[in-house]
Amino acid sequence: MNMNALPDTAPGFDQPVAVLKHCHDRIRKQLATLQKLLDHLPRHGADEQARDAARAVMKYFDQAAPLHHADEEENLVPMLQAVAQGEDAATLAMLVPSILQDHDAMDAMWQTLHEELALIAAGSAATLSTPVVLAFAERYLGHMEREEVHIAPMAKRLFSPAQMAQLGAAMQARRGIAPAPVPEASGEAVAALRKDYGQATLNEADVAADPIDQFTAWFDQALAAEVHEPNAMSVSTVGAGGQPSSRIVLIKQFDRRGFTWYTNYDSQKGQELAANPHAAILFFWSELERQIRIQGRVECTSAEESDKYFHSRPLKSRLSAIASVQSAPIDNRAALEENYEAVARQYGEAPPRPDNWGGFRLVPERIEFWQGRRSRFHDRIVYTLQPDGSWARQRLQP
User: Fold this and answer.
1) Distance between CA atoms of residues 164 and 80, nearest Å
2) What are phi and psi of 70, to 5 degrees?
3) Is 88 helix (H, G, I), strand (E, B) or coil?
4) Is 376 an active-site residue?
5) Contact by Cβ (8 Å): 229, 88
């Protein structure tokens, strides 16, 4: 039984998700050693190789595995629960109970295996329970696969650099490792941040004659590339004093008529659009090194369209739309929750669409497609609406 392996270099705690994956890889190696012991012991007994293997497995699952479980239970999972929304929150709600149950079950099985391995390590026994080893390995392998398919990618998508640093620091503290000093932020450090683009090009000969067709093609590519929230866009409006303001909203429809989102008409953006019905929206898809800038006038959707979309929303979202006087101040979160509970009691399962809630549609007059290129020599092609309803197309300098 060959227990030798080349040393594997562990990632640094500045990459905490990679550290967790490294822990999984080490667990897989220990599980493989356990299963080799099942074949080795009947033939060779508790010889030197078996004793060394038993000690190695015991060392890992006694010392390292509990730290890994604590990383997940005390840091990774609570941090994800604090930031996850929508489908991510639903995925966590489904997975977290099974993750915790796995930890308890694996800990219980390990107690049985620990007693057997301790006897093997001492050379006083040569028996290892096959059913427990197989169940232990199966439970661990399934557990790690679920985390690698769902939890790790979610953390990479949702955590900011500061949250990654927080997770890494907590993992270091748990292991008694002093975290590396974090350099102070400075203007020079910010100025040095840069990424060179070079995935694709944007040429006049390749783009569609109509910008909505071009937007559709790019949006479909963003979906295929699994861009994080490709429907998220920045909406910029202008207040009465000429002060611009921006916020991220989710586009819910686009077609020849324009680009549609839904909101409270009494919100800040609603009031600003009522006074000045012009806006700009921006899509930025970093994974594809692309952005799309759209300007135009804004109109309200019909009551029928607003009703249709409102009643397609999840119940809690409909209740929230009624309970929240969007953009208005409130004393605290508890007061907000009380408003929600009152609305839920009043309307139950069938809340009506409020008169001040509905859709805005930006009717485009200018659409610019931007493709990142090397050395900041980007491609920019802009479409401008003409009086006859056609679109003029022009390349802009970066």
Assistant:
1) 11
2) -65, -35
3) helix
4) yes
5) no
Average model confidence (pLDDT) across the chain = 90
- Asked whether 32 and 53 are in contact (CB, 8 A), the reply is no
The answer for residues whose C-beta is within 8 angstroms of residue 18's C-beta and 6 or more apart is 11
* Burial of 198 from C-beta contacts in 10 A (0-12 / 13-18 / 19+): exposed
Q: Which long-range contacts (CB under 8 A, 24 or more apart) does 93-102 make?
A: 95/146, 95/150, 95/151, 98/146, 99/72, 99/143, 99/146, 99/147, 99/151, 100/73, 102/139, 102/140, 102/142, 102/143
- Secondary structure (3-state) at 372: coil
Residue 152 and residue 149: Cα distance in Å, rounded? 7
Coil, strand or helix at 365: strand
Q: What is the DSSP letter of 287?
A: G
* pLDDT band at residue 294 using 50, 70 and 90 as cut-offs: very high
- Tens digits of residue pLDDT in 342-394: 999 999 999 999 999 999 999 999 999 999 998 888 999 999 999 999 999 99
Which of 139, 376, 393, 395 is labelled catalytic?
376
Q: Is the pTM of this model over 0.70?
A: no
Contacts of 42 (CB under 8 A, 6+ apart): 126
